[in-house]
Task: structure prediction
Amino acid sequence: MSFSVTPIAPLEAARHFIDKIQKPSRLLVAISGGSDSTGLLMALDRVCRDAGRADISLHAVSIDHALRPESGAEARGVAALCTRMGIPHHLRRWDTAKPATGLSAAARLARYALIADVADDIGADMIVVGHTRGDQLETIAMRGARSARQDNLGLAGMADAMLYGGRHWIVRPFLNSTRQDIRDFLSGEGQSWVEDPSNDDMKYERVRTRHLPLLEDRSLMDQSIQRSTLALDAAHFVENAFQSYGHGLVGLPVACLDASSATLRYALSAVACVIGGRRFSMAAQTLDKVVSFAMQSEPGRMTAGRVVFDRRREALYLMRENRDLPAIMIPGGGKAIWDGRMEVANLSGLDMTFRAAGSDMVAADFPASVPAGVVRRVRQTLPVIESHEGPQLAESRPEAVSMRPVLAPYDVFLPRFDYELANRIARLVGRGTYPPAPL
Result:
């Protein structure tokens, strides 16, 4: 997402967003009652009415995280505002147990899951959220503080659109609008907003970052790298260079290792996340070692990010390492994610235990060109089901088991930056592609 030279006023940003919608749409606007989300809902409503866009309907959703005593009253206040505006309002409450640590991350995941449920219920085409220019600058500053490397992809900031759960596009029309401009707009409308006390709690990294004078430095905006271009180059590289041998094994011919360093790093990192069943990329220093290892001329093996990188004379092979592989029980008719790599549905009426083949090393077909040692290691990591007949490959029982590859780094949150790359990897591992962004 590139920055505009100057901030964009809220109504102008809303108009730009609405003008890009070329077909009848139902928008679900997330509103907490704070100034950013309240301004977003009011700006979108004003623009739709002024433009006569009766083909666009607005719905609002609020999530009561049940973390503060006043949260229920705030949600009711938002509902009253929506009633006055004639906008349907949907309220959901996070009622499950709260974790002792990682509360902010857990609240974010719960929030998006509850919003997505509402989007499903009403058939929303897009979910619209109120992240602002300030949020973007804070994000870049926080990511920059964690790594000063020039290849820190976090310096690209938040994407203007993100796919959640493989089915709902979340868009951010206000990424170039400032909080102060949004509040000025609300004040001009005679509309108040809720002040969340957590926004001033210095125990949170984002709040501490918000108070740094560094955010006023224009050089922060200049740190944003051209991640979209890099990701697209990596997507083409995956499509043209990587080969799939099935069963979670991919290879990269050594002749393709002369690609540009940045492209090779991006592609290897993304593919390794999928093969290893991990949501987050390996550390930059670890990736340095992987790339250096891959570029060597001698055969060898190294392990990183739950992935074995096996360098042969003809290719670099990537496969899941045979360590910390789970065994899970899935009840009849149930579904679960196994090892972060496979969505498994138990189609039978019986409970089934799924585990890795391990020392059983059940048979699975591979091309004759794949080295025997690579085949042996891959077979150890294949999912099997326990039965009275001994371990059986899960894929050999299609009447009882349905399996679908998981793309761990993309199936929950897929930023628009990586959309093409994710689809190339999906095709590589035999998975359906992701739906395109509506805008």
